[in-house]
Task: structure prediction
Amino acid sequence: MYYIERLFRIDFKRMFTTIKKIAKRSKKPFIYIFIDIVISSLKYGSGYMDYFQFYFENLNGKQRATYINRTVNNNYFKLMNNREYFHFFQNKHEFLNKFKDYIKRDFIMLNEVTYDEYLEFVKKHPVFMAKPDDGLCGHDIELIDTSGKDLKELYDSFFKKKTLLLEEKIVQNGELSSIYPLAINTIRVVTINRNGRVEVPFVAIRMGNGGRVVDNFNSGGCFTVVDEDGVIRKPALDKENNVYDVHPYTNTPLIGFKIPMYEEIIKQCKEMATVIPEVGYVGWDMTVTDKGIDVVEGNQLPGYDIYQSFPHLNEDMCGLKPRFDKIIYGNK
Result:
């Protein structure tokens, strides 16, 4: 029944387009790739985008079985995360209030304050971020500079666009800014809180690019993994599978870069993972400012798309499923 339901949800046009891309890059026949995708789906629960993203055409069965794919990640969600508590992460205002002890920046919700309080906020922070309360992937986030603007007209426009959350602009410290100064380059820390024991199976740094003010991978950014000592030793990757040893916008060397305050970031993420234990599998987006560590947001459904990218794999070309499984399932 599960596979029948999945069959009816498939976008066949997109799937066939993706298979053509795989066939072209691998120089293998279309029908071979199609059959192999079906076999991989039945054996490992992977979708055609998993096959495409993780270059499954180059992997054998033992290697494919080590990858966190859509089905594996969904199983983690179902086991670790109670949907009744998702609102603390989905609603940015609720998140800021729930984790206020870890938030370093000012914020207001326009529908909860007076116009005079809005003016007071703008006077204190003439440059700030305007966000929808439930936005995803950096969409509809604006950097607002009030210089020369009509503040009442600006106020009305926020209500019209429903960007009611205003946050003090985070100013990352000089080290992170040297990588890319136009966006907050966030450190993605994945925590797993299993029966009160918190572990960190994956850390990456996401960087803005191309003049954009957000660092999201799906919005033009790039990313790379971070080793356990906080040092970058692998090249960055963007959505188009371009690989970079230096940042493409600033030419800042990435290999050998040490994340500032890395140990403190990991410690704080482990603490935050205990605030809502009902959501035990979380991806935290962290940064470092002159005020110290700040948490940008928490993700109750952390995407697995950045876990196992080809430039970040070891020589065995294996994925991270064994690492995650050991934490989540123990010796099972």
